[in-house]
Structures are given as structure tokens and as C-alpha cells.
């Protein structure tokens, strides 16, 4: 009896361990405009475990930031139609009351925005803004909050934090402002951190420092991180898993090595072909993806990438232009594409050969 109970308990524990900390299921985010309904996110699903980093990549307008604003509950509910399910440690967020979301934001989940200068108030010192976040969620005294602000500035690598805590944002460099934003986002030890292109406006040296900082802090706190970017080079250095978005949908997702090393969707292949390689020949030309991203007011039927896809005409029965491909994971690597595995091997190899030659 005890052995059976032990087995049952172990099985239950294993099942619980596999439940992602953040679970997004069939998320839809639609905006009503004078021209019609914008389907900014249209049926997106993914999971994220504690201590791991999910990189979300795609062109501007693919739905990356809209997705994460929905997770944080920052959309105007009167003008936005939200559907699906977003569970954070088992708590439903899409239908949560605003007061409950306010208690979670900055505490259990937090966000680093792209433009630190625009995100920080120019009228208050950096330290005061970090301290206010800490006081709001912990009830700490002003003295305790200021000490915590100094500690966080030191932790993110700001020199002389006990002095710089009294500086205003304009007195910080771009890299220091971004570090201050990270300090503010982490001041309450959040379990989920969303970073929305936090290194875009920074030079490559500061970018590398910020990524190292995020890795170190993740190891220290066990934080789950969503990193939004259009830069596959950043993703290659930071993410554990990759989700590729196009036209408000996920077209490919899986482990970093699989998605970037052996892409299965033509869009992912196109993104990789449009960025320079540090390992290959220096004279290989870049291959930009032809055309423009789809209008989300009137997206194309079937696969939303098919008007720009070099391989769509090779699929039988014009499936690409008529039927939406489902994301079918194989060994944890999924792609929403009508190409067969054999077709991908043949056509993608020809594509790479053409680039080299």
C-alpha cells in the first residue's frame, strides 16, 4: 500500500513539475479601429518554466509586445478584445480584477521597457523611483526603501550607488539608465521578468553587459524571463527556447539550438538569411525577405506568410493560401508549415547553397 502511495505521489509530483510557471493558451488580442478589427495576436500558445529564458522574435508588428502587454494586463479593456487563457503559477490573468493585477505587477511579474529615458520620470531621482516601487509592494519605510534602492543599483553594476541614487535619469548614460530600469524591475524579486527589446538602443559592448547581467540575476533569483527582440544574434546568446512570431501567430518554436540551427519554417530561414554570420564566409550576400508584413486588418488566408514565401508554390493543392497550418511539435520543435520534412530538407539545402554560390 505504501509503495503504491509512493508511486502515486511521485507521479503526481512529476506531473506538477512539468506544468509551466507561465502558460499562454490560444491567446487572442484584437483591437477595434475605425477601419476594422486589428487581429494583433490571433491564437498564440506557449509555456515558460522557472529559471528559463524564452526569446520571442519577429519583425515589427508581429505581435511580440502586444502579447506581453496582455500578460501584464496593460491593454485598455474597453477598446481591446482579449480571449484565451493566461495562467501565472495557476492564476488566471486575462479575467483578473485590476486591483489584483496591480498587486502582481512590479512584484510577482515585472517588465523592462525598451526606452529607459521615456520610461523613467524626469522629475524624480532614480533612487526615489526604485524605492517607491519597493514601498508600494512591501510597505517598507522610506529609509528601508532607499537602502534597498542603493543595494539594487549596486547589484546591477552602477558605480558609487550610494551617491548615484540621488541622480536624475538625465544624469545617467544610456547603459546606466537601462541598468536602473532592470534594478527597478527586480527590486521586489519578481518571478517573471519581461524584457521588451531592452538592448536595442545600446552599443554592442553595453548590450553584452546587459545580457550578462540578466543571466547572472536569473541564476541568482531563478527568474523566468521573456526576452522580446528582432535580433537573432541576441537570442542566440541569451535564450533557452525560441518562439518565432509572424502576423500575430507563432510559426515556429523550440529549443534555441534547434530553431536557429535547423529551422523548419521558411520565415525563420528568411530571418537567418537576412542577418550576417560571424562563422561563415565574409562575402556571402544577405538575403532580405521580399515583400512586407501582412495587414492585420485583413490578413491573408491560410498561412499568413505565404505571399512572401519562396516555397509556397511547391506545396500541393495551394494549401498555403487556403488552409491555416497547425503548429505540430516533433521532439519539442514545432512549426506551422505545410511543407513536408522531406521538402524542407531539399528546398532549404538548395536555398543555403544558392546563398553561398
From TrEMBL:
Similarity section: Belongs to the ABC transporter superfamily.
Protein name: ABC transporter ATP-binding protein
A GO BP annotation: peptide transport
GO cellular component: plasma membrane
The organism of origin for this protein: Streptomyces phyllanthi
GO molecular function annotations of the record: ATP binding; ATP hydrolysis activity
InterPro entries: AAA+_ATPase, ABC_Ni/Peptide_Import, ABC_transporter-like_ATP-bd, ABC_transporter-like_CS, Oligopep_ABC_C, P-loop_NTPase
NCBIfam families assigned: oligo_HPY
Keywords annotated in UniProt: ATP-binding, Cell membrane, Membrane, Nucleotide-binding, Transport
Annotated ABC transporter domain residues: 24-272
Major place of residence: membrane
UniProt-annotated location(s): Cell membrane
PROSITE patterns linked: ABC_TRANSPORTER_1, ABC_TRANSPORTER_2
Amino acid at each position: 500500500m505504501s509503495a503504491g502511495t509512493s508511486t502515486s505521489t511521485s507521479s503526481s509530483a512529476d506531473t506538477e513539475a512539468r506544468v509551466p510557471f507561465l502558460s499562454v493558451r490560444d491567446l487572442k488580442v484584437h483591437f477595434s479601429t475605425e477601419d476594422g478589427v486589428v487581429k494583433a495576436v490571433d491564437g498564440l500558445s506557449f509555456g515558460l518554466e522557472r529559471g528559463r529564458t524564452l526569446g520571442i522574435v519577429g519583425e515589427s508588428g508581429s505581435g511580440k509586445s502586444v502579447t506581453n502587454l496582455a500578460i501584464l494586463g496593460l491593454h485598455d479593456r474597453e477598446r481591446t478584445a482579449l480571449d484565451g487563457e493566461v495562467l501565472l503559477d495557476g492564476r488566471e490573468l486575462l479575467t483578473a480584477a485590476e486591483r489584483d493585477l496591480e498587486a502582481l505587477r512590479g512584484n510577482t511579474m515585472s517588465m523592462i521597457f525598451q526606452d529607459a529615458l521615456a520610461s523613467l520620470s524626469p522629475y524624480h531621482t532614480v533612487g526615489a523611483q526604485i524605492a517607491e516601487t519597493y514601498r508600494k509592494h512591501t510597505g517598507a519605510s522610506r529609509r528601508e526603501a532607499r537602502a534597498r534602492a542603493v543595494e539594487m543599483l549596486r547589484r546591477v553594476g552602477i558605480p558609487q550607488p550610494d551617491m548615484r541614487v540621488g541622480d536624475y535619469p538625465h544624469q545617467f548614460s544610456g547603459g546606466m539608465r537601462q541598468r536602473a530600469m532592470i534594478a527597478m524591475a527586480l527590486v521586489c524579486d519578481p518571478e517573471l521578468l519581461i524584457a521588451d527589446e531592452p538592448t536595442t538602443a545600446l552599443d554592442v559592448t553595453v548590450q553584452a553587459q546587459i545580457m550578462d547581467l540578466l543571466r547572472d540575476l536569473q541564476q541568482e533569483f531563478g527568474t523566468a524571463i521573456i526576452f522580446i527582440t528582432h535580433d537573432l544574434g541576441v537570442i542566440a546568446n541569451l535564450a533557452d527556447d525560441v518562439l518565432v512570431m509572424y502576423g500575430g501567430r507563432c510559426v515556429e518554436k523550440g529549443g534555441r539550438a534547434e530553431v536557429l540551427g535547423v529551422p523548419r519554417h521558411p520565415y525563420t530561414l528568411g530571418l537567418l538569411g537576412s542577418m550576417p554570420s560571424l562563422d561563415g564566409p565574409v562575402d556571402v550576400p544577405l538575403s532580405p525577405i521580399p515583400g512586407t508584413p501582412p495587414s492585420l486588418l485583413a490578413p491573408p488566408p491560410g498561412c499568413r506568410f505565404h505571399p512572401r514565401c519562396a516555397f509556397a508554390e511547391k506545396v500541393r493543392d495551394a494549401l498555403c493560401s487556403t488552409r491555416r497550418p497547425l503548429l505540430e511539435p516533433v521532439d519539442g520543435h514545432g512549426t506551422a508549415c505545410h511543407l513536408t520534412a522531406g521538402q524542407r530538407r531539399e528546398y532549404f539545402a538548395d536555398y543555403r547553397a544558392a546563398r553561398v554560390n
